[in-house]
């Protein structure tokens, strides 16, 4: 198992994951609708956090479909009690994933995993004939476009710290080519960002992520106390607007063969 930077026992994690669901679910649901997710689909979600995506998937696939919602630590998966949704503990780096799914989906997971390339291969393997792999991961290029020099210092420090921890905050741009190398078809990718305002949902999400990592960030030396204070003040300043990182949604499909499903 790869080490994970933001384990669920951090005190702010349930709230941070709730903000994440609120911020990102609409974009992912739009893309899932676009590939046609619907009645009868057999789905797997890995690294599900609080399970908001699988809760919605359970409603889309109906009684004839099924959803496995999983996480390394599934303790925060809530309110997905439905006969067609099963909660499982799955370490995506090593545990059996099953096979033949119509949809395998993960959001904001691969960037954290040093073994991300191998994990992407494992996820692709789990997709059945005619099924889809849908991955949504960050690409931080927009944050460096800020006009504010203090915030640029903050993001440069943050990205240097992440690289030192083998967290890839630019992985979003790399997934489409990898899906093609793995033999998936109809590969497409879209990056979406938010122009956020201090005090907004997005600013609160960014601030809560940073506060969970405060001690490690400052101890690393990549972010000074002054740069930290300036950035946190901007995240609260309602007169301040800036770019969030983008989230890149990449979709790819396994060619349909003899039957829609594998084993
Ligand atoms: C940033 S959170 C994203 C949660 C959710 N996908 C979302 O977008 O709201 C990453 C999640 O991946 C899980 N995770 C980390 N390492 C994992 C692993 N090796 N296998 C499965 N899940 C893992 C964490 O427990 C956490 O819930």
Automatic annotation (TrEMBL):
GO terms for biological process: methylation. GO terms for molecular function: methyltransferase activity. Keywords: Methyltransferase, Transferase. InterPro entries: SAM-dependent_MTases_sf. The keyword Methyltransferase applies. It comes from the Bacteria. The keyword Methyltransferase applies. PANTHER family: PUTATIVE (AFU_ORTHOLOGUE AFUA_2G14390)-RELATED, TRANS-ACONITATE 2-METHYLTRANSFERASE-RELATED. This is Methyltransferase domain-containing protein. It comes from Microbacterium pygmaeum.
């Amino acid at each position: 198992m790869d080490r994970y930077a933001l384990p669920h026992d951090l005190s702010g994690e349930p709230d941070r994951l709730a903000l994440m669901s609120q911020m990102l679910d609409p974009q992912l649901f739009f893309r899932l609708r676009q590939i046609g997710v619907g009645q009868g689909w057999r789905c797997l979600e890995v690294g599900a956090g609080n399970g908001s995506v699988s809760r919605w998937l359970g409603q889309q696939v109906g009684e004839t479909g099924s959803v496995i919602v999983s996480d390394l630590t599934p303790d925060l998966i809530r309110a997905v009690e439905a006969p067609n949704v099963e909660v499982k503990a799955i370490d995506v780096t090593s545990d059996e994933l099953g096979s033949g799914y119509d949809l395998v989906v993960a959001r904001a997971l691969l960037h954290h995993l040093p073994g991300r390339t191998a994990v992407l291969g494992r996820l692709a393997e789990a997709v059945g004939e005619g099924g889809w792999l849908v991955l949504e991961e960050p690409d931080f290029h927009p944050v460096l476009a800020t006009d504010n020099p203090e915030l640029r210092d903050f993001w440069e420090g943050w990205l240097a710290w992440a690289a030192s921890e083998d967290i890839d905050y630019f992985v979003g741009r790399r997934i489409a080519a990898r899906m093609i190398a793995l033999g998936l078809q109809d590969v497409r990718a879209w990056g979406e960002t938010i122009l956020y305002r201090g005090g907004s949902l997005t600013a609160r999400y960014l601030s809560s992520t940073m506060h969970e990592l405060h001690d490690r960030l400052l101890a690393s030396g990549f972010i000074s106390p002054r740069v930290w204070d300036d950035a946190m003040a901007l995240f609260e300043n309602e007169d301040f607007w800036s770019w969030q990182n983008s989230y890149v949604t990449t979709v790819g499909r396994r060619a349909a063969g003899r039957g829609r499903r594998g084993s």
